[in-house]
Amino acid sequence: MLEEILRWDRETFIYLNGLGVKEYDAFWSAITNFNHWIPLFILFIYLLFFKFPLKKSLTMLGMLVFLIFLITTLTDLTKEVVARLRPNNNEEINTLIRIVKSPTNFSFFSGHASSSFSITTLMFLFLRKKFSWSWLFYIWPFLFAASRIYVGVHYPVDIIVGALVGIGCAFMTYVLYKRLIVPYLGLVHP
After folding, report:
1. pTM for this predicted structure
2. Domain ranges of the chain
3. Angle, nearest 10°, between helix axes 156-176 and 54-82?
């Protein structure tokens, strides 16, 4: 079963990566750069402080920082334990694919997918009752994660598992916030 999944993963990656066109390399390179998304993070923080009282906003921001620390640690530990080569570093396929970026660390699971889906999910859970359009936040992680296949550094399974871990950690953080933090601080949860 694992062999079948890995074969599908490799073949799907080669196919999707092969759809890339050189004229779009700059666009996808910009999409995959975390720094280009800083305005979105500023918007998230602004929305928290705009829609909630100061104490609640600061608590939510603290939960977001906790989540970022959790997901970064979990991602880095998993990459070191699993030690899966990135496609761009895999000699079996790196001559068959388009390589736009060339990181040297390990691939499983995608930190871009786990961090973007975790941040987005927690922000969605905090803001969903205040903004009916907050589901649009998910455009970011989908583009961000897809860019990793385009630039040649992650397999689809890396992205899928990263997204699921990120969403799971966000829900866990939200439950922790609702059940432990909100009652302790006397806040009303969103």
Report:
1. 0.90
2. 42-185
3. 140
